[in-house]
Specification:
globular, alpha+beta, 11-stranded antiparallel beta sheet, 8 helices, 4-stranded mixed beta sheet
């Protein structure tokens, strides 16, 4: 297996420096698992500037009328149909899960971390909030499988944290999906042989530059060729699918997600995406994988980090070095119980 990278140097007359000749460097990297390429920009002005917008003020503006807040959630959110879903909603701790009004999948859920937490900055995410949310989503996947195992074959747990990540509601929440057809990325990942994923992790552990930590059944790594800025991956071992996630692994996942969000907050990031990909039991490839990526900070006029490259070429361009990201993340993971950093 090769961690392939090619460096391209460009020379221009730079107006920022009196039109003197200036060289800049871009690195093309190939993902060892999928072959997908990414572009790493070196020594440039920060593409995702630190958040300077008063998100708390926007939270106050969006709180009146929010359907996920305590005084409205019971009346404003739908209920599931089907005996497997109890009274139509799933509650775990402070988390409340209900159907998504938009039919993104055969079974589609929304899970609010806590109705009382209309504003939940990344730095304030806790393992307890994350774990209860995940427990509710796992219960949703199990219920969907009981209702219709064929329609619910391909499951995922996802998150759009704040508006730049794609959320249409300010109140922080995750989304679950169970569908008979895999997403493009689910199909791509399940085509990666399991032994190739193990070889990848072995090499990353040995190299140490991007390997962050193991929390027991999960290895956490900064992606060599990221699919978005600041991508951190969690490889989940010994579990066949999302419906089989035991509580111990859920707690591990929650801790890793929390540590990653705190790392992003340290970088000045306020918004991110999350995906935990599942696959049917008969799938033989790389099945259970968690991914998080940074998104643009919230601002009145902000630069989206999704351009033609990401949307139409499926290729990320980022200036966040995976090696630097791993070094930052290790500091947060090291504080967790049962965690061994690289």
């Amino acid at each position: 297996m090769e961690f392939r990278a090619e460096v391209t140097t460009r020379v221009i007359h730079d107006p920022r420096r009196g039109f003197e000749t200036t060289a800049s460097v871009m690195e093309t990297r190939w993902d060892p698992l999928t072959g997908q390429t990414a572009r790493l920009l070196r020594d440039v002005e920060r593409l995702l500037p630190a958040a300077g917008f008063d998100v708390a003020e926007l939270a106050a503006q969006t709180r009146p009328g929010c359907p996920f807040c305590p005084d409205r959630i019971e009346a404003a959110t739908p209920r599931f149909v089907g005996a497997g879903f109890g009274d139509g909603r799933i509650r775990v701790g402070r988390a409340v899960l209900f159907p998504n009004l938009l039919p993104y999948a055969a079974y589609s859920s929304v899970c609010v971390y806590a109705p009382a937490r209309h504003h939940l900055p990344l730095a304030e995410m806790t393992p307890v909030l994350a774990a209860d949310n995940l427990r509710a989503q796992v219960a949703f996947v199990r219920a969907a499988h009981r209702e219709n195992p064929v329609a619910a074959a391909w499951a995922s747990i996802n998150g759009n944290h704040l508006l730049p990540a794609g959320s249409s509601v300010f109140h922080p929440h995750t989304q679950g999906g169970c569908h008979p057809v895999p997403t493009n990325t689910q199909a791509q990942l399940v085509s990666v042989p399991a032994d190739r994923a193990e070889e990848y992790l072995t090499l990353e552990r040995r190299g140490g530059q991007r390997y962050i930590a193991t929390t027991g059944q999960i290895d956490w790594v900064a992606a060599f060729a990221p699919t978005g800025p600041g991508e951190i991956r969690g490889f989940i071992h010994g579990v066949g699918g999302l419906a089989e996630l035991g509580d111990g692994v859920v707690v591990e996942l929650a801790a890793g997600i929390t540590h990653t969000m705190h790392t992003y907050a340290e970088l000045g990031i306020s918004s991110c995406n999350l995906a935990i990909y599942g696959a049917p039991p008969q799938a033989a490839g790389c099945r259970l994988l968690a991914r998080l990526v940074c998104r643009s900070p919230l601002a009145p006029f902000y630069r989206s980090d999704v351009t033609y490259l990401e949307r139409l070429h499926a290729e990320a361009a980022t200036d966040i070095s995976p090696e630097d990201l791993a070094a930052r993340a290790r500091q947060h993971f090291a504080a967790g119980p049962g965690c061994r950093t690289g």
